[in-house]
Amino acid sequence: MFVYNYHHDTGECIGKVPANESPREPGEYLVPAFATPAAPPPTSARECVCYLDAGGGVPASHTDGSWQVQPDWRGLPLWDTATGQPVTILRPGVAPDEIGATDIERADPATVWDGTSWVPDPMLIEQQLTYRRTELLDAINAERNRLEAAGFPYLGKVLDSTPRSVQRITAAALAAQAALAAGQTFTLDWTCADNSTLTLDAVGVIGMPVALAQHAAALHTHARTLKAEAEAAVDQAGLDAIDVQAGWPGGMVA
């Protein structure tokens, strides 16, 4: 004779062992607590068998319960139907629908659960589009600002355009204008971005802030074009087609 042990907390069958014969009643076999002589029934996928009483508890005595086939989703990937976040079932006897879950993954955050599948939600799609558009506009501004400080082309060279460099350019241009007004000769060697020098007269020095302003204006024009495209995009594909890195004037992409 065999008895089937079941877990004291879940009632789940945990093994089959030979029963011990009663020392006082030969031919009679002892059934310990949390065990039963009844064999458990077969189960299918995502099921287990538990020994339970009428109230769903686990009886110590086999006479107070019976084997019951229970859903078993422990450790299987599930997703909350309200949020789409992963959830886990830890105990037998709990089905996904009892906790508002599904075994169908939410592949797109702009979808909602309709009871059988994830379907597109217009409100979430619009929210996602607005968020992505804002991200893209911020990226365009950031790239424009970066390029403004990354240097500008002048007389075949690239000159620095950091805030400190712009101050130096402004001061040099004022000095050149003053020299011209006074009829004085003016020349200086300007250090370029590659550490080479550019020898400039007064007119050449005054041309630096002009070139800088033209370069900045061209950057802003391109940024406005990109932002107009972002504002006009009606879906995610349209936003994804906008290349924030491409098309900037001056070739200052380092």
Automatic annotation (TrEMBL):
Full protein name: Putative tail fiber assembly-like protein
Residues of the DUF4376 domain: 133-241
Pfam families: DUF4376
Organism of this sequence: Pseudogulbenkiania ferrooxidans 2002
